[in-house]
Design brief:
309 residues, alpha+beta, 2 domains, 4-stranded antiparallel beta sheet
């Protein structure tokens, strides 16, 4: 802990560029610092062959992922009263030194990324066992993609960020269960590959290029009841990176059913269908940051029922 505190002291109080930036635009300085830090982490992990089955060829371009993750981390900056400026206001807000200190200590990815760069990049303090636990599961092992010619919808920064929100016991390995490129665009095939396989991550890309998904905390079962618990969450990867956790609005975490006459069919999280009639219209609003609230089960829209389009 002493080492971590000393490192942050150097960054916060002995770096002239950052101190000058406080007088100019601290948010922009923090954003640039964070982008450089994340890019350094990706470079170090790739150079040291620590990507554990992932590589820069079988994932999305990391450049956009770096910017998305930096924006997400910088959005955690708080004013003295605890409020978080958002949107354009964030970049124009002048945070004082105490706010920056709070941000560095409070956002766990910052300290972990600094550890990676210092220890893995420079091989400083590399052998201290108590300094390795924070990055043990930074990148999950990748199983099932190698040799299949697939390019993941995730980039390396988003893999790191989403993995950090999973339960600790699930952070060590990701195993590919289903890909529409490999198994076809079949809902039956999807069900056959994910049912009774344990917790999983679902990720989708729509026709407009939006990438989003969710984490299912339990094995999927085909049944007319909701499943899962409050560890389930939704996330967006592109154009913005964010995780949307349980709000307490309801307990309808997961739902999987098909071939039913009277019950809803499809794969659902938070009572919003993501593989039912219209995935973009049903899920995009929640999963790309427009709303963080789950709503009630989809109700038929009478005026659309007679629409021939």
């Amino acid at each position: 802990m002493f080492i971590k505190d000393s490192l942050f002291t150097v960054l916060l109080f002995r770096t002239p560029g950052l101190l000058i930036g406080i007088a100019i635009s601290i948010t922009k300085q923090c954003n640039k610092f964070t982008e450089d830090l994340i890019m350094s982490v990706v470079h170090v992990l790739n150079y040291r062959k620590e990507l554990r089955g992932w590589n820069l060829e079988n994932t999305r371009d990391s450049a956009s992922g770096v910017k998305a993750l930096a924006s997400q981390l910088v959005s955690e900056l708080k004013l003295a009263d605890g409020t978080k400026p958002v949107g354009p206001q964030l970049m124009e807000t002048n945070f004082d030194q105490s706010a920056i200190e709070d941000w560095v200590y409070r956002v766990p990815q910052i300290s972990v990324f600094l550890s990676v760069v210092i220890r893995q990049g420079l091989h400083v303090l590399h052998s201290l066992p108590d300094q390795t636990k924070d990055i043990l599961n930074l990148v999950p092992g990748c199983k099932g993609i190698k040799g299949r010619g697939l390019v993941s919808l995730f980039d390396v920064p988003s893999i790191i960020y989403i993995n950090s929100h999973l339960p600790a016991e699930l952070q060590h390995k990701w195993q590919l269960l289903f890909s529409s490129r490999l198994h076809g665009e079949s809902f039956s095939q999807l069900c056959g590959h994910i049912v009774n396989k344990g917790p999983c991550i679902v990720i989708l890309k729509d026709l407009d290029g939006y990438i989003f998904g969710g984490f299912a905390s339990h094995s999927w079962e085909v049944k007319p009841q909701f499943q899962g618990d409050n560890r389930c969450f939704l996330f967006s990867v592109f154009p913005s990176l964010a995780v949307y956790t349980y709000t307490g609005y309801n307990d309808h975490y997961m739902y999987l059913n098909h071939g039913q006459q009277t019950m809803p069919n499809g794969l659902t999280k938070g009572k919003k269908s993501i593989l039912d009639i219209d995935p973009e219209a049903q899920a995009l609003l929640e999963m790309t940051g427009k709303s963080r609230q789950s709503e009630g089960l989809r109700e038929p829209i009478e005026e659309d029922e007679d629409d021939d389009n």
